[in-house]
Design goal:
The protein is mainly α and 149 residues long. Helix content is 60%, strand content 0%. The protein contains five helices and no strands.
Length: 149
């Protein structure tokens, strides 16, 4: 799946998906079914934003293992958290819709989940592309072979 979802495709899908989320959250509340029973709306909020978090980290996330732990890899994550807050606040101005703190928390939890899954898959893909640690002919590591040891 990771080969099919190239970073370029993931970026385009993330932008389109974010626009879809804003479009759906702009619909008046009267036109939407009531999902408040059993907290289904919170689950859907989390799922919607988990998808967005995954697409963003796949599109703009780390592509080299050395950058996996650097703080700048979390900038897209923080932008998503702010995006979710703005989207939730914007719903206060839509007839029949409400801005809810718990909806934003569900969005943030979904973003975090999707982002972490995406980072884990990116790291796994990076590690699978590494050269083997030892060459079959000599039994020495790549570093030893390159250094003439």
């Amino acid at each position: 799946m990771m080969r099919l979802l190239t970073p370029h495709r993931a970026r385009r899908l993330a932008i389109l998906y974010a626009l879809l989320l804003v479009g759906v959250s702009s619909l008046p509340g009267i036109k939407l079914p009531d999902l408040s029973e059993g907290h289904l709306d919170k689950v859907l909020h989390g799922l919607e934003y988990a998808i967005l978090g995954f697409l963003v980290v796949r599109g703009w996330g780390p592509f080299r293992e050395q950058t996996m732990s650097r703080w700048h890899e979390w900038i897209p994550y923080l932008i998503l958290i702010v995006f979710a807050a703005i989207d939730e606040y914007h719903q206060a101005w839509i007839p029949g819709r409400f801005a809810e703190w718990f909806d934003w928390m569900a969005d943030a939890l979904g973003i975090t989940s999707g982002y972490l899954v995406g980072m884990g898959l990116n790291l796994r893909a990076l590690r699978s592309r590494r050269p083997p640690l030892a060459t079959p002919a000599t039994g020495r590591s790549q570093g030893q072979v390159q250094n003439g040891i």
